[in-house]
């Protein structure tokens, strides 16, 4: 089950937050934000190698009891984070990767919308429906 | 006969994202400069008109089409040659009025609006209004007064984009005597 999709600006403030409604949404946000530290760590640790391979997918950031958190960072340092239910073992690494790729493509389209100012919160019907379909598909 | 000498008919290619983003930057800048959408629409139309009156010369020089005998022929030339040459698309022509003085250009995909999502506070903005101005300006230069306007727009949730063209009148040549 895909629980949450979040995009962060290069300065690490959220551009887009979307999660399935739960009682403890705060805990969610907490999990996602702490994952940013891992993202930064990963970038600085293997920064050189990442650039060389043009590999944007960071893989599993960290597993908690209930969630698995995956990360993806573009060359412009925009971060995408997805939270997946730990109980779901059917989801393969490759699928996560292609979902991130999809997210990245959608994000690119939004950046190309002349009415969107870079750095603003994302309010886009197209992006919403894309995330929706991803959440439906994975459920 | 050698009218097109010096003016190649080859199609130069341009990156479509750059084109779309350039037009987007133009429209959003206009939105910042003017208070309401109606003024922006008017301004786009005016800019289009100024493009049209110039573009027609280029069009005639490059396409080598002759005089059109009726409005139907004009419609064909606009859709199959004009749009093809400058936007790389071929709109279809439908909905002729019984009198034959009105028709619709249906654009299945409009290269100007790739990526664009109209924000809620610009609901009356006619994003591609430049095109209407271009058509009006260009046809005016060949002695045809027309009215062009958008009646459907994919940006507003319609399935296609439709430009309605209406023939108003022939503009009589005001050539000085002795010149014909």
Can you lay out the helices and strands and say which pair or pack?
The complex is a heterodimer of chains A (139) and B (180).
Chain A: E1 2-8, E2 14-19, H1 25-53, E3 57-63, E4 67-73, E5 79-85, H2 93-111, H3 125-138
Antiparallel strand pairs in A: 1-2, 1-5, 3-4, 4-5
Chain B: H1 16-33, H2 37-63, H3 71-87, E1 92-94, E2 102-107, H4 129-141, E3 144-152, E4 161-170
Helix pairs in contact in B: 2-4
Structural commentary:
The complex is a heterodimer of chains A (139) and B (180). Chain A has 3 helices and 5 strands, in the order E-E-H-E-E-E-H-H. With 139 residues, chain A is of the alpha+beta class. Chain A has a single domain (2-138), classed as Beta-Lactamase, CATH 3.30.450. A 5-stranded antiparallel β-sheet of chain A has the order 2-1-5-4-3, sandwiched between helices. In chain A, helix 2 (93-111) packs antiparallel against helix 3. The model of chain A has no long low-confidence stretch (mean pLDDT 83). Chain B is of the alpha+beta class and 180 residues long. In chain B, 42% of the residues lie in helices and 16% in strands. Chain B contains 4 helices and 4 strands. Chain B has a 4-stranded antiparallel β-sheet with strand order 1-2-4-3. In chain B, a hairpin with a 7-residue loop joins strand 1 (92-94) and strand 2 (102-107). In chain B, helix 2 (37-63) crosses helix 4. Chain B starts with 15 loop residues before the first helix and ends in a 10-residue tail after the last strand. Mean pLDDT of chain B is 88; it is low at 1-5. The A-B interface holds A 109-110, 112-116, 123-126 and B 17, 20-21, 23-25, 27-28, 114-119, 122.
């Amino acid at each position: 089950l895909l629980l949450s999709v979040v995009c962060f600006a290069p300065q690490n403030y959220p551009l887009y937050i979307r999660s399935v409604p739960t009682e403890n949404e705060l805990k969610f946000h907490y999990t996602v934000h702490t994952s940013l530290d891992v993202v930064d760590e990963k970038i600085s640790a293997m920064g050189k190698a990442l650039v060389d391979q043009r590999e944007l997918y960071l893989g599993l950031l960290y597993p908690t009891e209930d969630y698995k958190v995956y990360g993806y960072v573009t060359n412009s340092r925009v971060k995408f984070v997805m939270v997946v239910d730990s109980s779901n073992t059917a989801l393969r690494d490759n699928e996560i990767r292609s979902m991130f790729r999809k997210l990245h493509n959608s994000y690119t389209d939004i950046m190309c919308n002349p009415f969107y100012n870079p750095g603003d919160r994302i309010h886009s019907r197209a992006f919403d429906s894309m995330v929706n379909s991803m959440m439906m598909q994975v459920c | 006969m050698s009218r097109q000498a010096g003016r190649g008919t080859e199609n130069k290619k341009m990156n479509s994202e750059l084109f779309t983003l350039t037009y987007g930057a133009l429209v959003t800048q206009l939105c910042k400069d003017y208070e309401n959408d109606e003024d922006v629409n008017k301004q786009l139309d005016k800019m289009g008109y100024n493009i049209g009156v110039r573009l027609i010369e280029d069009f005639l020089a490059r396409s080598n089409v002759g005089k059109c005998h009726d409005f139907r022929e004009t419609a064909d030339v606009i859709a199959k040659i004009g749009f093809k040459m400058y936007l790389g698309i071929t709109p279809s022509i439908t909905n002729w009025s019984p009198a034959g003085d009105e028709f619709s250009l249906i654009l299945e995909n409009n290269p100007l609006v790739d990526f664009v999502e109209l924000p809620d506070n610009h609901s009356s903005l006619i994003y591609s209004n430049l095109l209407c101005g271009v058509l009006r300006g260009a046809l005016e230069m060949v002695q045809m007064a027309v009215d062009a306007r958008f009646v459907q727009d994919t940006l507003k949730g319609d399935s296609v984009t439709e430009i309605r063209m209406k023939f108003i009148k022939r503009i009589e040549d005001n050539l000085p005597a002795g010149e014909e």
